[in-house]
Design goal:
The chain has 218 residues and is α/β, with parallel strands linked by helices. It has a single domain, classed as Aldolase class I (TIM Barrel, Alpha-Beta Barrel). Helix content is 28%, strand content 23%. The protein is built from 7 helices and 9 strands; from the N terminus they run ββαβαβαββαβαβαβα. Helix 2 runs parallel beside helix 3. The radius of gyration is 17 Å and the shape is globular. It starts with a strand and ends with a helix.
Length: 218
Amino acid sequence: MLPVNEIFQSVQGEATFTGTPSVFVRLQGCPVGCGWCDTKHTWELNHDHVVSIHSMIDKQNDSESHAIMSALDLTYLVSEKYSAKHIVITGGEPCLYDLIELTTLLINNGCSVQIETSGTKAIYCHKDTFVTLSPKIGMPGGLKVLESNWALADEIKMPVGKQSDIEKLRANVPAQYMNKVWLQPLSQSKSATKLCVDQATENGWKVSIQTHKYLGVR
């Protein structure tokens, strides 16, 4: 059973799948504690905030309310209610949960599936799941990226606000996986964007711009 904070259809605005119509499944719960997180309402798991599936789907505000759903019910809902066939499982930290059943059901149902994770928890998913590892290094939660997760990542999307974030990237990502790196400027900052463009150009990395924010969609 999975705690689902929200489900919505939009376009993936970041990294490899930029521009892809997608259904976002946001799970509740995250122990990482990023200060600049824009979904802090997903951090806490409180049984007092459990609501019906209908209420979760229809809610209009960011809140801790979430529905408890089985992988089968979630797959059916996503397939019947939405037309996009790329499913992004995000959070919160989705890898707090075993996602093998959900990802397998979705893939067997003809969907492509992407997980967005901090890499601080073991990743359990179908082998054809696309894994976006967004390393959160030195956050208040005190969690580290698991060494085994670097190899599972299809892309490594590093949030960058200043030069020290580039140094954290160099110090933590094993050299053999540096070809997977995307730099993503924090908060659409001009200085962070320039830093990302310069560093990507110098090191053969890529730049992930949060294009959905420029488009004015979720």
